[in-house]
Every structure is written in C-alpha cells, then in structure tokens.
Amino acid sequence: MILSIQNVVKRYAEHTALAGVSLEIPKGQIFGLLGPNGAGKTSLIRIINQITAPDEGQVIFDGELLQPKHVEQIGYLPEERGLYKKMKVGEQLMYLAQLKGLSRTEAQNRLKDWFIRLDIKDWWNKPVDDLSKGMQQKTQFIATVVHEPKLLILDEPFSGFDPINANMLKEEILGLKERGTTILFSTHRMESVEELCDSIALINHSQVVLTGEKEEVRNRYKKDEYAIKFSGTLSDTDDFQVVSVDDAGQSAIIKLTQADGTNKAIAALIKQVDLQEFKEVVPSFNDIFIQVVEETK
Amino acid sequence: MNKILLVIQREYLTRIQKKSFWIASLLGPILITAIYAVPIWLAMQDKEVKRIEVVDESGLFQTADLVDKEVEFKLVKKPVADLKANFAKEGYTALVHLPKDILTNGKDLKIYSEKNLSLSLKSSIERVIEKKVRAVLMKEAGIASEVYEKTQVDVGSETVTVSESGDETSSSSGGAMILAGVMGMLLYITLLLYGSQVMNGVIEEKSSRIIEVIISSIKPYQLMLGKILGVGMVGLTQFLLWIVLTIGLSQVASKFYQTSPIQQKMEQVKKADPKVAKELNDASPMAEVTKVIESTNIPLVVGGFLFYFLFGYLLYSSLFAAIGSAVESATEAQQFTFIVMLPIIAAFMMAQFTMQDPDSTMAFWASMIPFTSPINMMVRLPYGVPAWELATSMTLLVLGFLACSWISARIYRIGILMYGKKVTVKEMAKWLFYKG
Fold it and tell me: Are residues B14 and A82, on separate chains, in Cβ contact within 8 Å?
C-alpha cells in the first residue's frame, strides 16, 4: 500500500467534511476517487497533501506516518489550478520544481527533458500570460510530475482539455503508471474511470460508500440481465423474465431467474424465437454511481 | 528554511525585474531633489524688483523713506480712484494707499493689487511703513532719531544642546525638524506602499489559484514569511538606490547652484567684506544642512530608521497579508485595508504634533505603542531620546510584530483556501481558533 487512510475525521465550523474515512490505495495503480460535489473528496485530498490536518485518524504514506518530508514524493494537480501570470514559463517551473525539493541543476535537466518530450522547447522564455489555455495545462502538468513523485494526485485533470491534449495527458498518465507511479484520480467523468482506473472508491456524505477493484465492483452491480437480438415472439418463462422489448420487436432485455442460469435461459429462448445475439448487460460506472449515490442519500 | 529562501528569491527577483520598480527608483530621487531644488531655483528666478505705487494722504513720507531691497516704491500724487484703475497696466504690482491718519490708525493702510500679494511682499511693504511711522512717533515723543537708530538691534540665537556629560553641540532645531519630517513621511509612504504590495501579492496568488499548488509544497506560514521578507528586501533595495541617487543628484544640483550668477555675485560680496561673508554663510541653506549633519548622531538615526522601517513594515505587512488572504480581489480588500491603514494614518497625524513638541506626553505614548511607534519614534529621534525610552519602544515593537504575525498567520492559513464567500471581520476572528 502506498497510502493507507485510517478513520480520518475532518470537521469544519458548520459541517463534517469527512466522517471516519478509511481507504487503502495499492502501489502502482490508478485509483479513482469518485463522489458527487461536496462529498468530501477535496477535503481528503487536502489532508493527503498536508494542506490541512485531520481532526482524528491518521494517514500512512509508504509505511510511514504522513509527515512534511513526504510533500516531495507527492505531486498534486488541483482542480482549480493557476500559474503566476507575469512569470516566464521556464522560471516558473524552476521555482515550483525547487519547492518540491529538486536542486537547481536537477530541476533544469528534468525540465529540459519534459520540454523536448512535449515539444514545447520554445516556451521557456514566454510569459504565462501569452500561453493559451491548453499550453498552460501542459505547463501545470509538468509542474506536477517533474519531481517524479511516488504518488500523483489529479483532481479532475481532464476538465477543460481539448481532445488532443486530453489524449496526450492520458498517454502520460499511463506511462507514469508503467514506471511505477501510483495515481489518485478524482473525477466526475465516468468514461475516464472505465478507461483508466484499476480500483475505485466512492465517497458520499463524508463517508466511503463503495470501494474495490473496478471489475469486482462492476460484478457486484450486475443484475443478471442480458441483451438479446432475435426474430419471433418473446414471452416470460420459468428461466427468465422480459424486462423490455424495443419497438420493432427485434431486441430485448431479459432478466434471469437464477444467477447461473444462462444455459437454461438460452435453451428456453431458442424454443421461442430465432436467437441472433445473447450478451450480458454490464453496468456502466455511470449507472453504478447514480445508483449508489441515490441509495446512500 | 531552504524553501523560504526560494520564496524570498522569487518575490525579490520578480519585483526587481519590473519596469515600475526602476521607474520609482529613478523618479523618487528626482522628485525629492526637485522638491528642494525647484523652490531654490524659483527663488533665484524671482529676483526682479517689484514696483509699487504709493499714494500718501498723510504727507509724512518722502521718497527716501521708502527703501527696500526687493521693492521699488514710487510716490504719486493723484486720486486713488484713478490710480486703482491704471496701476496694473503701467506695470506696478500693487498700489499702496496711506490714509491721513496713518499715525493714529495704522490698520487703515490699504494695498490694492491685481493678484494676491505674496506674504513676503506684504510684510516688506508693512515693514517699510511701520519703520517710518515708528520713527515719526518716537520723534513726537521726544526721542532723537540717533537714539532710535541705536535701538535697532538684531538678535540671532545659536542653539546648543548640552548632554549630561557636558558635551556641547551646536544644534539646529529647524534642521532636526526637517530631518524628522522627512523621515516620518518616508516611513509613512513606505509602510503603505510595501504593505499593500504584500497584500496584492497574496491576492494574486489566491485569485490565480496557484496558491493550492504552492501550499502543497510548503507551509502557508513559510509562504507568507517568504513573501513579506522578499518584498521587504525590495523596499531596502529601493531605499539604497534612493539614497545613492539622491546624493548623486544633489551633488549635481548644488554644483549648478554654485555656478549660478547669484551665487557668484554673493562670492564677490563675501570677498569684499568678511563680516557680510559670515552673515551670508550663516544664512545659506548649505550651512543649515551642515549644522544638522554635525549635530545629529547619524549612525543612530540611520540605524533607527532601518530598525523602525523593518519592524514597522513586518508588523503592518503581516496584517496586510492576512487581509489579502481573506478576499478574492483588490476591490473587495478595500473595506478591510481601511482598518489597517487607519493606525498608519493616525500615526502620521500624531507625528505632526510630535514634531512640534517631541517631549510631550502624547509624543511619548505615540512612540511606545507598536502601531504608531515606527513613525513617531523616528520623528523624535533627531531631537534626542533617552536610551531607556528607545529600548522600550524597540522591544514593544518587536513584541507587537510577533503578536501581529501570529494572528495574521492563523487568518492567512484559512483565508487562502476560502473561495466564493464574502468574509466579515467577525469570521476572521473565528479563524484564529480553528485547528490545523
């Protein structure tokens, strides 16, 4: 485990942001931190970044109690991110890299590599003011990863990215994962969860309401429903019930009466209709998210 | 510690690299020099003799009675009404009307002029008339004019301060006052200037949202401290530039002054008459400056200035930083900056009284209370201040700074993360007690 969050409580004057949150984040994974607005994600991220301290509970980072020296092993890209507008790109990144503990020469060498890699060599002396939004996002991303952190925290990293930059970011994230970086990834966009995450945790009302590996969670929310295509007339049997049929009467959703009854259901189906396609309905994370949030209201 | 140095370096370098810094650094000394040089220059230009028409209904005055260095009087015998209409057209600055009963009713003297008369011209005219009227009255009272001439003595004092050990220094009250005024003013301007620079820096970081990235690398108090120290060093650099440039410029200006025709004429006069030379020397502005420099404990004043600038600045800028952290824009900050500016303005106003009477009770307390002491103690310092008072004032200022920076750091760490909420003073007070 790179990060072990144990019973963390954070209270503000008027409300409790985190009410006893526990999470285990395994090394080398992309871990999705999900939850509606105001659920407590940002509070948790700020605690991991040591911007604020928990009122109760503790955080273990890489086997040690979280302490100030660890900021150099964590990279953080906040949702609301900014840069010093009047500073030049190169100077700015040098400053941010050195704040993360890199020496001057080390920072310079690594930044030069990144500038070559992202094909932005001629930006070094440009003031941030002159950069487009996409260019600023690249700059911010470099600032987040230049010190090669063990843990990378990305809060809604894709918001505001155009498809080309989003793709570049995705490639970089996957590359970092390959090189052993753990990525804590907070987002609302379920398609990026499906695409990138290995595990997820869902926070609602200051508590963890769902956590686990992506496929395992998905299996938990399977409803034994199958999508079929057919010709003929379909009706309920002992082995399945018809949930819905489309207007043309060519495809339908059926629900099995027994969890492992696929063979029986297929046998029953081919007696009734000419079966062309039989496919399990896998719940999307969008559906799971909505379902769990509704349930834990 | 290393990281605070990084913050200081960034704050310092980004400001030093700005054009506005260099413009202010260059314009400052030019303005300071101009404030002193322009009046001198104007005085040099304004040496044309003023012409005044005089109508004397009393019949006491002859042309010989009306003599002055800077004014040329002309006695005329025409009705006042005619002259009033024409004196300005004929090139006279003013028309003086002496009533019949000038001896008994001096207040009835009337001076007509197109523009407001300068005070010095008015008093020159009054002096000349007074002198004659007094002479006539003396004569009527039976005092011979020779006796009267003898009573015209000129008293001039030299002030000398005597220290407890009996050392005497020729002091200059006027000079001390100028020095006090200049330093009080300088502190007032710089406290406001650099304090608000710190505040704007904090607002910039908050509104551009870079703050969250920075404080995931360093502690908020480190960032605040680094910013305050960095901007403070910019202030010290600017002082240094101002001092060097002002000295340079005033050297040039005084050279120019020395080679001016008036100065050359004065030199000739000095050579001709040693007595006049001494009088002229005593009266010249340069002599006054020299006297101030001789009578002031320069290391004490310079050291005091640096100390009071530094700690006064630290105290106020930490409060400015706290305000900056609680708001999201400069306009929103205005309502709060007033709270911090109030004591600075009050201190500056008190300093005007302190300057008049540096040993009054008010001056004493104003130079002890940390919020007002930087300006007020600096104003008192050129006049001489007992060592224990200075030590107490300095200690209180350092303690005041520590208290203010503690309060500010606690507001700051919460404020920088607060968005989309109009903050009140009451709320800021609550933040003091929030946990980590």
Answer: no
